[in-house]
Amino acid sequence: MEMHELPAIRRNRATTPLNAARRLHDELAELGIASDVHDGYGLALVSVWFGLVVWTDGHVFRWGTGEGPERDRRGWHAFGPADDPVTTACRVADRYAELRRTHPHPGPSPWAPQ
Question: Out of the domains of life, which is the source (predicted)?
Answer without folding.
Answer: Bacteria
